Amino acid sequence: MLAVPLTGCGGNWQSVLDVEGSAAISLKHLIILIVAVCSVVWMLVMVALIAALWRTRDAHPTTPEPVRERRMTLAVTGAVVATILIISTFTVLSFIATRTLNVAGQDDLTIRVRGLQWWWGLEYIGPHPSQRFETANEIHIPVGRNVRLKLEGLDVIHSFWVPSLAGKQDLVPGRSNELTIRAERAGVYRGQCAEFCGMQHAHMALLVIAEPQEDFERWAAAQRQTATPPIDEEAAAGLQTFLTKPCAACHTVRGTAAAGTTGPDLTHVGSRRTIASGMFETTRGSLAAWIADPQTIKPGNNMPLVPLKPDELRAISAYLASLK
Amino acid sequence: MTRPATAPDTRDIDIERTRLTSTLAETWKTPPGFWGALTTVDHKIIGRRYIFTAFVFLALGGVLAALMRLQLAQPEARLIGPDRYNQIFTMHGANMMFLFAVPVMEAVAVYLVPLMVGTRNIAFPRLNAFSYWIYVAGGALLWIAFALDMGPDVGWFAYVPLSGPQYGAGKRADIWAQMITFTELSALAIAVELVVTIFKQRAPGMTLDRIPLFVWSMLVTSFLVIMAMPAIMIASTGLILDRLFGTHFYNPAEGGDVLLWQHLFWFFGHPEVYIIFLPAAGMVSTMIEPFARRPAFGYLGLVMALIATGILAFGLWVHHMFVAGLPRLGDSFFTASSMAIAIPAGIQMFCWLATLWDGRPVFKTPLLFIIGFIVTFVIGGLTGVMVASVPFDTQVHDTYFVVAHFHYVLIGGAVFPLLGAVHYWFPKLTGRMMSETLGRWSFWLIIVGFNATFFPMHILGLEGMPRRVYTYQPDLPWHGLNVFISLSAVVLTAGFLLFFINVLKSARFGEVAPDNPWDAPTLEWATTSPPPSYNFAMIPVVGSLHPLWDERDTLPVADGLRTDRRELIVTTLAAAEPQAREASPRNSIWPLLAAVATTIMLIWSIFSPWAVVWGSIPIAVALIGWFWPKGTPEDES
What we know:
The structure holds two protein chains of two kinds.
Chain A: H1 22-54, H2 66-100, E1 109-116, E2 119-125, E3 133-136, E4 138-142, E5 147-153, E6 158-160, E7 169-171, E8 177-181, E9 187-192, E10 205-211, H3 213-224, H4 233-244, H5 247-250, E11 274-275, E12 280-281, H6 284-292, H7 294-297, H8 310-322
Parallel strand pairs in A: 1-5, 4-10
Antiparallel strand pairs in A: 1-2, 2-3, 5-8, 6-7, 9-10, 11-12
Chain B: H1 17-28, H2 33-39, H3 43-72, H4 82-116, H5 125-147, H6 172-200, H7 213-245, H8 258-292, H9 299-312, H10 328-340, H11 342-358, H12 365-388, H13 390-396, H14 400-430, H15 436-462, H16 479-509, E1 539-540, H17 547-550, E2 557-558, E3 567-571, E4 578-583, H18 590-604, H19 610-627
Antiparallel strand pairs in B: 1-2, 3-4
């Protein structure tokens, strides 16, 4: 297996505790507070338990005495009152924290995120229809801006979760959910489907790449372009194979005759860091491996094995790798 | 009270002790051999059978867990493919919830409740027999399907549309849904039996405030079963109709709703947790008395906490749906209600601590498991408070944090008390004591293995590892903890193996148990170990909450029951004053035949809707045979 290199941030890049998103930062504070209070509660209970078991006792009779019973009633009542106070505080804190999540303004960048077995379809919606474009599995966002995600499950239920940026939200067929994310620092943030969605639930990752506004604009402008024409003979042969074999029935490469919509849009597949929903780094080799045997690499996924001759496989992988 | 004309010498007051017991034994006996085994309606035999079967399912579910840990020990391991793995985790969840946890609690109650309330058999004993056969058939259906590579693979919660006609291919989801029907039937049957037994068959004098706490917990649990099961029945029927007939209950394209399934499922699924936990809490409250050598502190508080938990259990199902996109205000309400359940849990916990504080603890294996329960269940309860918070939950929902949480609740909160209960009531069930040495060893292995296995899962969840993944990629930082967890699971497995060895060995060679080895205060210890087929030669009369402590050696008894036919005393609901003598049914083969007919109909209906029409004919025949008057003495009343 090829490993996807970590870029942009060191250490853990899919963690609730290693956060760079505004929502995730406030969630982290809440989580740490609640965990700390609960740890103290647990320790107090343990102290009480140990004391109860180990304390030296006089040989009093087993029948309860009214004085001791009263004292214990007081202690138990006190503990119950403390419990009520703690959970009331938690409830109010949760309520306040919930209200601060999901605050999106009118002019925010909006991305339609579609969950499919087992990849993410992305549609950037600009103020003008001409700014619209499609891509897959890799979300680019500008740093420091709210980005509104419109979440739709197209087949079964999925859940969008990039823990370093925000809490998760389900993609439910027949409904449209929203989630606002905002990265405070440039970086690559990994996310993964969090609702069991069938055979390849484990391999349904995505990347969120937060970059400065100008880098983002440059990327978006490039994505809006149609595919680069084949740069050499081999790539041209690859395009030809792509169009004559079943590939084009499922995939779109804008600017060519390939206009299928079942699989991810491949117009700029070469520019994306990973293929197969975060399984491999995008290289010509990984593309070739994936096309040659998708069912062994990701059993049960919807990409069929298309028999290709060795030179066809070489050509098609060269072509796809060139789609920057 | 009716007084049929009977020969005077058949009343228990009119004959001397040895003839009394031999006549009762003849009247209540289960004939030896195969036929007797198939026809018995003795709650003790059925209860023991039920407990044994449930533990077999526990062991099978444990094997599945071990397989999962084997696969997850390495990133991108290829030991188990995604298709099999998804079947395995679905089977593990469905098996543990539907075939182990709920049935085992009800099974213990089937055995103990009639003894603890001082009666001779459970109410509706034939229904009890039927319930067991249906349960075994449901379990066999699920496991045979799994062996044939047809096991359900949609999770124990079977969310639509993944389990619906479009994405759940084959018969796998149907097998899951129909297994639910089997376990529903058996659980509902027992719930009804227990409610009636507890309400109407308590020994004279056992007023509401003298009911042992385990019996109280089973009463509340039974009502939970009766109220929660219809929701899953509606849900699974809708799913079967969608799959078999093409209805559109859950199909958004045709006006159905995907979230309807989740509401119905969790309206059942959350109370289900308390259906498992409350009996365990009752076991702790009951066992803590002999081992703290004092009455449980705060009887009224403990009973009220059980009832409050039962009521609140129905008001917090939405916390399973916090990230499904429901209105935020509603979510906040369910945060409050989910947090509130900590109050009755806290009351019970503080009462147990007070009991231990004031008592003089006897450190035997059952108490060790109670201590282990307190240590781990408090963690599970506190992480429960965490996931009750909507914002907290958006980060940990469907991650290993939740896997850790509910294993702390279910293993720490229910299995530990259950293991303690096995050590505690083993002498009553078998007439032999379990080995204390092996008991201690298994306790320490289990508690260390359990915490080492499940505590790191909290961290994995916070590090972003989702649940229900068959593998993970090598560049994610989860490998180390996963290896540690898989190794710790070996220790946990060793602990359970030792427990099973202890059970099997002690059943054969254990020290012979006296009637009341723990000096316990409740009625089941007033009879022999194991009890005779008729439970009590004379029905005890109860004068306090702890009859065997307060009236040592002088337990009063009621008399006047016939000995030549199966008879027991019916008492009033609140005051337990004797009301009538009631006949109790004899052994019968019809419950088994009815269960076979029901099984054929239910399994056939996975494949054809016409099964409901034609399959109901044999069921009707079996039920007519079941209720047909046989001319036995019991028919007279």
